Amino acid sequence: MVALVTPMMDDGPVDYEALEALIEWHIESGTDAIVSMGTTGESATLDFKEHGEVVAFTVKQVNGRIPVIAGTGANSTSEAIELTAFAKGVGADACLLVTPYYNKPTQEGLYQHYKTIAESVDIPQILYNVPGRTACDLLPETVARLAKVSNIVGIKEATGELDRVKQIQSLVDDSEFDLYTGDDGSAVEFILLGGHGGISVTANVVPKELSEIYHLALEGKAEEARALDAKIAALHQVLFAESNPIPVKWALYEMGKIRKGIRLPLTELSELHRPTLNAVLKEVGALS
Predict the structure, then answer these.
(1) Which residue range is the domain that position 210 belongs to?
(2) In this structure, is the dihedral angle defined by the CA atoms of residues 110, 115, 116 and 120, taken in order, positive or negative?
(3) Tens digits of residue pLDDT in 228-266
(4) Which residues, given as ranges, of the chain have pLDDT below 50?
(5) Considering its fold, how many domains does the chain have in total?
(6) Could you confirm whether 111 is annotated as catalytic?
(7) Any residues with CB less than 8 A from the CB of 3 and at least 6 apart, and which?
């Protein structure tokens, strides 16, 4: 699944023509699902109206060909409920909810936050744990409690710690609760340990290759998956040379897929990292 960027004009508005083209490219490339308005989509800097318009546009453009998962997390429970209800209303297949950021709730607070959203909006919901960005860690024990809520169907675990897979598996029946990685660098090993897939930033740049790698890993073809992943390992690293989605948006700009637009306080990739990024894009065949 791709954590899709939100293309923007150089002066900030959403570029829907480029978004349409990206959606079609991903469907043609074998991407299994699109995450619209996740954190890679700059959900933190689009207002509520824009957020909803992007999700609605994506659902309409995809037109049922693959699932659309809407990013609807917030650090306010009431806002997350509103975003989730809107996503359901426009036809999203599921929602991805990042842990509340900055306010650092307790584990009980996290449990009540997610439980309240799930009970308020009847749509499949995926937890999203990325403590490196939120200063909030959703612990396995809390995940196990939340997995008992009928429409909480999985977690995107982006700590990059492979032990988390085993910890969650020991507490949750993973035949009924999906484990997705949000860390591109360790994704293959995560899946080989029993993960069900991943929500990827790198897939924005090489969707066909990522689809092949993930499916090989899901089929248990470990050496083939590792060998193909090794060919794009440098891409996993360079796409996080600065805060996501700065590098990935610049990569797509260099590839001619989108314009330079990005919302403050994020800025364009610094000139320091551009030569390395371009070299890696050429190395993996994403740039001629």
Answers:
(1) 2-221
(2) positive
(3) 999 999 999 999 999 999 999 999 999 999 999 999 999
(4) none
(5) 1
(6) no
(7) 35, 38, 39, 40, 41, 182, 199, 200, 201, 203, 204
Task: Tell the residue number behind the tokens 């037109």, with chain if given.
Answer: 63
Catalytic residue of the set 88, 111, 114, 128: 128
Q: Which two tokens stand for residue 10?
A: 């150089």
CB 178 within 8 A of CB 153: yes
Site of tokens 């989730």? 84
Catalytic site residue 156? yes
What is the rounded distance in angstroms from the CA atom of residue 66 to the CA atom of residue 75? 29
Output the domain CATH number for residue 165: 3.20.20.70
pLDDT tens-digit profile of 67-106?
A: 999 999 999 999 999 999 999 999 999 999 999 999 999 9
CA distance 160 to 182: 8
- What pLDDT is attached to residue 96? 98
129 burial type by CB count under 10 A (0-12 exposed, 13-18 middle, 19+ buried)? buried
The answer to the question of residue 247 being in a domain is no
Nearest CA among 237, 250, 178, 231 for reference residue 202: 237
Residue 67: both structure tokens together: 């699932």
Catalytic residue among 111, 114, 156, 214: 156
Residue 272 lies in a domain: no
The dihedrals phi and psi of 206, each to the nearest 5 degrees, come to -130, 65
Q: What confidence score (pLDDT) does residue 182 get? A: 97
- Is 0.85 surpassed by the pTM of this model? yes
